[in-house]
From TrEMBL:
Source superkingdom: Bacteria
Keyword presence, Transferase: yes
Protein name (database record): Riboflavin synthase
Catalytic activity: 2 6,7-dimethyl-8-(1-D-ribityl)lumazine + H(+) = 5-amino-6-(D-ribitylamino)uracil + riboflavin
MF term (GO), any: riboflavin synthase activity
């Protein structure tokens, strides 16, 4: 489990295209401290497993399913990525509960800079819109953010200078894809209410 608080802005150093997967080598001096084979690291919000670790770099295999459902397939050598290690038991939950399981991708529509922050508008797949509400939480490229405005096919977030400086959202331009993970609590509530409605109907 992750919190959506990015630990560092890493970099893709190599990409190997396999038959039904890709292998990425990524540099991240912070997240590789103490890393071992089998550990999890979130890369742009996608939970990946460390295959190899040497120095400040690690490799991870990404299967076709993940490449199809996320924006990782668009990464090339030199791409910057958000990196986060799993939350340790007993640590503060600085963002919100993030699983590292991407629900879909959106696209940066526009950016509106101001003196102290920037509003970013992002497209939202129709099947995810019901989980996104104003002042609710959403994960964008692994970053825990608060929704400012929620429309039927878009949402906006307000980014402070720290987020712009230390994450990929400071680099994304209109047309660029981003990974989206909605609040898992909303999905559980929907499922529970649906099951209750079905059970109630069956008993009538």
């Amino acid at each position: 489990m992750f919190t959506g608080i990015v630990e560092e802005l890493g970099e893709v150093t190599a990409v190997e295209i396999l038959d039904d997967a890709s292998r990425f080598r990524l540099r991240g001096p912070v997240v590789t401290q103490g890393a071992q084979h089998g550990d999890s690291i979130a890369v742009n919000g996608v939970c990946l497993t460390v295959v190899e670790h040497e120095g400040d770099e690690f490799t991870a295999d990404v299967m076709a399913e993940t490449l199809d459902r996320s924006s990782l397939g668009a990464l090339t050598v030199g791409s910057r990525v958000n990196l986060e290690r799993p939350m340790a038991v007993g640590e503060r939950l600085g963002g919100h509960i993030v699983q590292g399981h991407v629900d879909g991708t959106g696209t940066v529509i526009e950016r509106k800079p101001s003196e102290n922050w920037e509003i970013v508008k992002i497209s939202l797949p129709a099947d995810l819109s019901r989980y996104v509400v104003e002042k609710g939480s959403i994960t964008v490229d692994g970053i825990s953010l608060t929704v400012v405005d929620a429309g039927p096919d878009y949402f906006t977030v307000s980014l402070i200078p720290t987020t712009l400086d230390l994450t990929t959202l400071g680099l994304k331009q209109p047309g660029d894809p981003v990974n989206l993970e909605v609040d898992v609590i909303a999905k559980y509530v929907e499922r529970l209410l649906g099951d209750r409605a079905t059970a109630g109907g069956a008993g009538k």
